[in-house]
Design brief:
It is an enzyme of class 3 (hydrolase). InterPro entries: GP_PDE_dom, PLC-like_Pdiesterase_TIM-brl. By secondary structure, this protein is α/β, with parallel strands linked by helices. The chain has one domain: Phosphatidylinositol (PI) phosphodiesterase (TIM Barrel). Helices cover 28% and strands 13% of the residues. The chain has a four-stranded parallel sheet with strand order 7-2-1-13, covered by helices on one side. Strands 9-10-11-12 form a four-stranded parallel sheet. Strands 4-3-8 form a three-stranded mixed sheet, with helices on one face. A hairpin with a 5-residue loop joins strand 3 and strand 4. The radius of gyration is 20 Å and the shape is globular.
């Protein structure tokens, strides 16, 4: 999930500050919001690697997020996109030079190397690298150290960490481009459900959320599993499966009621709750009124990604006041949030809980 350049570079604004001692009871909140490690601790390690997920667990994340795409032989692996050009060293492997291809996926034409053209054994010969080296140069020292992990490996890590830490570490998988993969004979849903059932996770209280930007595959999953489902939404555009005219149409009160018929909650882009300029929207109240939870994305420390009033200085790569930004959204009443920096998310969540307790 990627914040838009327009939002990131918009004019400075003043977001109403969330008082640390704000009474969360006014939002009907009794549980602390969950901290979801976005692609792991991707602010500190190359994304979607066991290094990144392990770091997130060490920092106190409640859930680790694997975006799922299939290999040629149908194995689900964790990559943000099936195009692995920017996140692996595939371009430096001459044996795979002929695999380079141009494809159109969800209306976007791109050239690179794609997971569906590699067997798992072939993919395992590659090594992960940092996707944003200019913004996160410190992460590049981990380039070449990690493989592309399978869903099985991510589940095993979460289960082992749960035993070792004594706290439940959940997973928050996203089905990437489900219509596209179904169209080439590699549908995601049954593969994912089978793995979750094998892990003992087919209950509404299982430590799992399944998320998707599409609609019809979530409706399909509703009939296949009891695991909680999250409808992802972006500030612009529409679901790639054409099930709705736009994401904006889905956040009307009527639209949210329709989502609530198949999903447990929504994962909106954070600017759908607090735009880069102006006051907060009514999305939190409207979603809660429809019985939906909200887990917005994505909270990142770099100025490039922060809302303007939380930036520090002019360098896009410098870190701003992420903790304050998260505290503001907690004060608005979110039920959880995705962050590339889980330790800052945990600090903010704990500060908000402490202030509420003290109040």
């Amino acid at each position: 999930m990627t914040r838009s350049l327009i939002a990131a570079l918009s004019l400075m604004m003043v977001v109403p500050g969330a008082a640390l001692g704000q009474d969360h009871a006014m939002h009907g909140k009794t549980d602390k919001p969950i901290v979801i490690a976005h692609r792991g601790a991707s602010g500190e390690r190359p994304e979607h690697t066991l290094l990144s997920y392990q770091r997130a667990i060490e920092q106190g994340a409640d859930f680790i997020e694997p975006d799922l795409v299939p290999t040629k032989d149908g194995v689900l692996v964790a990559r943000h996109e099936n195009n692995i050009t920017e996140t692996t060293d595939v371009a430096s492997h001459p044996e795979f030079a002929s695999r380079k291809a141009t494809k159109t996926i969800d209306g976007e034409t791109m050239t690179g190397w794609f997971t569906e053209d590699f067997t798992l054994a072939e993919l395992k010969t590659l090594r992960a690298k940092e996707r944003l080296p200019k913004l996160r140069p410190g992460n590049t020292k981990f380039d070449g150290q990690a493989e592309v992990p399978t869903l099985d490996e991510v589940i095993a890590l979460a289960k082992q960490a749960s035993k070792e830490t004594g706290r439940t570490i959940g997973i928050y998988p996203e089905t990437k481009h489900p219509s596209y993969f179904a169209s080439i004979g590699l549908p995601l849903e049954q593969r994912l459900v089978d793995k979750l059932k094998a892990a003992g996770w087919d209950r509404a209280d299982a430590p799992v959320f399944i998320q998707s930007f599409e609609v019809n595959n979530l409706k399909k999953l509703k009939a296949m599993t009891k695991v909680r489902l999250i409808q992802l939404m972006a500030g612009a555009g529409a679901p790639a499966d054409g099930a709705q005219p736009s994401y904006k149409a889905m956040i009307t009160p009527e639209g949210l009621k329709a989502v609530a018929a198949y999903a447990y909650g929504i994962g909106p882009e954070l600017t759908m709750i607090q735009p880069a300029t102006g006051p907060a929207t009514t999305l939190i109240a409207d979603a809660h009124a429809a019985g939906l939870k909200l887990h917005p994305w994505t909270f990142r420390a770099e100025n490039f990604f922060l809302l303007p009033s939380y930036r520090s200085g002019a360098n896009p790569a410098d870190h701003g006041r992420l903790k304050e930004e998260i505290l503001y959204f907690i004060g608005l009443g979110v039920d959880g949030f995705f962050t590339d920096f889980p330790y800052i998310g945990v600090e903010a969540r704990d500060a908000a809980a402490g202030a509420h307790k003290g109040g």
